[in-house]
Amino acid sequence: MSRLLPYPILSACLAATWLLLNAPLSPGNVLLALLVGLMVPAVMLALRPPSVRVRAPGILARLAVIVLYDMVRSNIDVARIILGLRGGERRTGFVTIPLDMRAPFGLAILSIILTGTPGTLWVQYDSDTGCLLIHVLDYTDGEEWVRRVKDRYERPLMQIFAP
């Protein structure tokens, strides 16, 4: 059973996502959903990803609330910019953030947070220096962005994925 379904939750989620994105239900879509749900986890098994150990689930829950709040706030801010409701001059810019975190799963989650939040985009990460380059739609102060990313996201992620 483990060879057929190495990651059963992932299989179920992929199949469900496929069906939701390819509505209406048809026999062909169900068959394709089952194939995707079985094939993608089999490929992941071949890649042999290391297991993840979450060290602080309470901090993870708090981080989820912070990210949700930041995403809602950023959606409102970006909407104001696009609709021209925000006075003043808007500048875009790039910010280099020196990261202390090296955990691959923590970096992956950070990339999802930054790219998923409207107005910011993960551009490049240099694993040799630990420097992250992000693009910001509403660039104000680079040091403010460095503090925001490090305090709100990096520090909790380091506690969650600490070795």
From TrEMBL:
Subcellular location(s) per record: Cell membrane
Lineage: Bacteria, Pseudomonadati, Pseudomonadota, Alphaproteobacteria, Hyphomicrobiales
GO cellular component: plasma membrane
Single Gene Ontology MF annotation: monoatomic cation transmembrane transporter activity
Entry protein name: Na(+)/H(+) antiporter subunit E1
NCBIfam families per the UniProt record, alphabetical: PRK08965.1-4
Pfam families reported for this sequence: MNHE
The organism of origin for this protein: Methylobacterium bullatum
GN (gene name): mnhE1
Entry keyword Iron: no
Transmembrane segments: 30-47, 103-123
Membrane topology: Multi-pass membrane protein
InterPro entries registered for this protein in UniProt: Cation_antiport_E (IPR002758)
Entry's family note: Belongs to the CPA3 antiporters (TC 2.A.63) subunit E family.
Keywords recorded for this protein, A-Z: Cell membrane, Membrane, Transmembrane, Transmembrane helix
